[in-house]
Amino acid sequence: MDFIEFLDLLREKLVSSYDLYDEFELEGFAFDFYAKFFMRTERYIATKKAVIYGMETNDYFLVKRVDNLERADLEEYLDWAKTNIEVIVKPHDEHMASSLTLVLVVDQEPDQDLVKLVNKTKFHRGFSFGFKGWVDLRLVVYSLDEGLFISNKKGREVKDLFIQ
Predict the structure, then answer these.
(1) What does the pLDDT look like over 79-104, one tens digit per residue?
(2) CB-based contacts of 30, cutoff 8 Å, min separation 6
């Protein structure tokens, strides 16, 4: 499978629930594909104008093709994601949870050192002691040649999107 086919398959799976964008640039990094999902739940009394409370859940996908993924490149992407998380996720009083899925697509299987780094990557940030919600980072490295899916623990939640 080539990268165009990969993006087409991902688009097919996300199109019904996500807003999709190609060639997306954010804070100095260019991504090949960006998708965002927004869900709001409200509780109200009698009419929808009398809202008691609301909760928002967001999901973001950033997909980047990387020719030769090295440890330094992966660390740079992770640092970028951690630094710019509040640019992507905009916490407020009704924000409950968000997930940022960073997908790095490579041609060949990464080395074992890189696989270990991906597997042990964790990132969870609460906003205002959790009162404005939290965000989790899902890290996915997908090898086109082998169809190999590598992810951190949170990334396994989206494995079905990549395995056919």
Answers:
(1) 999 999 888 898 888 888 999 999 99
(2) 23, 24, 64
Lookup: tokens for 59: 């999901």
List all residues 6 or more positions away from 83 whose beta carbon is below 8 Å from its beta carbon: none
Q: SS3 sequence, 62-106?
A: EEEECCCCCHHHHHHHHHHHHHCHHHHCCCCCCEEEEEEEEEEEE
> 121: which 2 tokens?
């990557």
Domain ranges, ordered by start, for the chain = 3-161
Of 152, 79, 150, 159, the closest CA to residue 122 belongs to 152
Three-state DSSP class for residue 109:
coil
**pLDDT by residue (tens digit) across 150-162?**
999 999 999 888 8
CA 61 to each of CA 45, 53, 89, 117, 121: distance values in angstroms, whole numbers, following the listed order: 35, 27, 12, 20, 17
